[in-house]
Amino acid sequence: MNGLTRTQRRAFRTRRSIRRPVDTGRLRLSVFRSARYIYAQVIDDRSGVTVAEANSRSLAPKGSKTDQAKAVGQELAKRAVAAGVSRVVFDRGPYRYHGRVKALAEGAREGGLEF
Q1: How far apart are CA 112 and CA 78, in angstroms?
Q2: CA-to-CA distance for 90 and 68, rounded, in angstroms?
Q3: Is 60 strand, coil or helix?
């Protein structure tokens, strides 16, 4: 079609829908999910800087992948609040809001992030 894969088109479609809130000053909480780990970061798109990040690879939490994702969300929220960020926009990328992605979002909310 236009040289993009189906996954790339879905990710761009998701990001396009969240650009408007980002213009109001909120930072973006971006999620990447691999087969083994889950990564999350809070990004300031205006300056192109990562404010806070957490992943299951370096934290090595115990439990199922869903439990690990929740722990990553809580740790990310703790680091973001310490950096002075409390309101973000959730960028799930090409992933459905289900399973590990949902657990990460719930953990981030429990940790003090608002989105």
Answers
A1: 7
A2: 18
A3: coil
Tell me 28's DSSP state: E
How far is it, in rounded angstroms, from Cα 28 to Cα 26? 7
| pLDDT per residue rounded down to tens, the chain (115 residues) | 578 898 888 888 887 777 665 567 789 999 999 999 999 999 998 888 999 999 999 999 999 999 999 999 999 999 999 999 999 999 998 999 999 999 999 999 999 999 8
**What are the domain boundaries of the chain?**
6-111
The structure tokens listed for 52 are: 């806070």
- For domain 6-111, give its CATH number from 3.30.540.10, 3.40.50.10190, 3.40.640.10, 3.30.420.100: 3.30.420.100
- Token couple for 38: 């889950």
